[in-house]
From TrEMBL:
Signal peptide: none annotated. Residues 2-66 form the 4-oxalocrotonate tautomerase-like domain. The active site is at residue 2. Coiled coil: none annotated. Keywords: Isomerase, Plasmid. This is Tautomerase. Gene3D superfamilies: Macrophage Migration Inhibitory Factor. InterPro entries: 4-OT (IPR018191), 4-OT-like_dom (IPR004370), Tautomerase/MIF_sf (IPR014347). The keyword Isomerase applies. Belongs to the 4-oxalocrotonate tautomerase family. GO terms for molecular function: isomerase activity.
Length: 78
C-alpha cells in the first residue's frame, strides 16, 4: 500500500488564486496514482496520496526563505 506525500508552497499558480486549486489537486492525485500503477503495478484503490500545502514563510531553499531565494535567482538572470 503506497502512501505518497506531495508538499507544495501555499500560493496560487494563476492570478486571483492563493493556493493549489481542487482541480490541480485532483490531477496530482490521479497522475501520481496512475504512475504507481504503471511503474510498480500498485492498484489505484491501494494507493494513498496526501497533499500538504506549506505557507511560503515556512519553506526554505538554498539557505534562504523561498521568496528571498526566488528574488536572488531572478536578479542573477537579469
Amino acid at each position: 500500500m503506497p502512501i505518497v506525500t506531495i508538499q507544495v508552497t501555499r500560493e496560487g499558480n494563476t492570478p486571483g488564486t492563493s493556493a493549489v486549486t481542487p482541480e490541480e489537486k485532483a490531477q496530482l492525485i490521479k497522475g501520481t496514482s496512475e504512475l504507481l500503477l504503471k511503474v510498480l503495478n500498485k492498484p489505484l484503490e491501494a494507493t494513498f496520496v496526501v497533499i500538504q500545502e506549506v505557507e511560503k514563510e515556512n519553506w526554505g531553499w538554498g539557505g534562504l526563505p523561498v521568496d528571498e531565494y526566488r528574488r536572488l535567482r531572478a536578479s542573477k538572470n537579469d
